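Record 1 of the preview.
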Amino acid sequence: MKSIYSILTALLFSLSLVSCNDFLDYSPTAVIDEEKAFSNPEEMVTAAYAMLGDCWYTYPFNLFPYGDITSDDCLKGGSGTTDTDYHPFEVWSNLTSTIGHMDELWYRLYCAISRCNRALVSLEQYGDDKLGAETCRQRQAEVKFLRAHFYFKLITVFRQVPWIDEEVFSKNTVEQTRNDQFTYQELWEKIIADFEQAYQTLPATQAKQPGRTHKIAAAAYLAKCYLQLAWGDGYEATNGESHLNSSFLQKVVEYTDVVKSSSYGYLADYGDIFLPDYKNSCESIFAVQCSDYQDDNTQYGRANWSNMLNGCWGMWSCGWDFHKPSQNLVDAFKTQDGLPMFEDAFNDYNAHPICGQPNSQKWDPRLFHTVGMPTFPYKYESEYTQTTANSRNPDTYGYYTSLKEVPQRSKGETFNQPWQAFAMNDYVLRYSDVMLMRAEALIELNQLDEARSIINDIRQRAAQSVSKHIAYAADQCEIALYPADSPYFASKQMARRSLQWERRLEMAMESSRYFDLRRWGIASQTLNRYFQQEQQANFEGKPYAQYYKDAHYTAGKNEFFPIPYNQLYYIPGLYQQNKGYE
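->
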């Protein structure tokens, strides 16, 4: 063995001597000259935008593993608990800093931020001359929006992160920048400052280029930021209704005023929101733009790779059956006299509808747009009716499938074999999401009537979303509005419960559920109760989700994810670990 190492060393040394001059004289042809790149600010801005869709299942920028798999809305899915690194996310009890997918997400988000910082430097140096002062100012605001968007995701997942901006980049002090340099609130204030510049600078819309950032999207994001801050610092002991900040809540109302008075609004049918034909409708305030290669003349298209594992097993050419709705979520759609059954009754028994066999149990229509179920047409198409065979590992993950992030089966994939991808936009902010933020703030500010009106508008849209796509379930649907004298809005506490329930139904499987529970300060009680209940789940007598017996959520630790091990020890001592993960 020693002689082999000696021979290899000698060969490498001799090659270095023979070819040294050739290597030194060679000018690489596939490397972009840095100065040339920086002298093209428009291209640098485009490169920053390109990071919006730089996604893969191990680092999905829509955060579905972090916001859905971690919650009571869904199970991981796939072939089993060892399929991908995401199983610890759904049980929480064995979550550690060494999970590779977390490190990939951190790295990719900072790559995106790096592109934003480089674009800002390029605009500062060359923008006025190359683009003109006004266009340069607008591009700077767009890039600030993008940077804030990426930082929003980082702070949402990892909480205490290093703030690396164009000044840090220019001074080359990235490796000296600590993650505890700024407090949690100070980091939020920096994100808000970037969004505020976008809000003050950008036009109300960019209709001809729907992927560009704009004033209304900035207003919506500012409302979202202030809503996070309004509830506290993210940890249950110092978060929740007893820590509400009314001035921040008022900011939510002010910025959603701007959205409410804009050209955005509710799409007429709830199902249309999740069809590619309507991907830039009035509902879509800001979305990551995806496309088909046949439309944009590229080899693979600008596909959505975040959701590449989430297609239904046996329905697509390579559907991997991840992102599986829970029985708890299905039960949450039960109605009685058209209204939710709430915590005291909704989960007393497992139930699911059967196509063509209505009974006394009625359902919110949004169930049939959100959850694929055996016996029902898959995404509205009867020729692709779902069966129990369309689940990859039903003994572990049950028989439900996710519908929102996939197109209709007849439209096919954008790319397949060995992976699949779809030309489905990824919503970042949609109108009903923002209006529910507004209703949440209004309730906490004791403006219950307007909050009820918003929730009723959303429920009315759901009621009108039956005949176009899910007529086959019409006799199983029942949904009602909250009357003016409704006991559900007689007090702030009751109104808060109604809002939180509505948000779950409207936004189910859209990557926000866990973050909502954390914001409200109820994650531990909700999830630990769910772990006990869901392990009793069964589909027509067949149990699944038994692994929840090992699940437990620990308040004071699990609210945020650990700083990834590779980042923590890249420069030992530079970053501090989130509490509870030492």
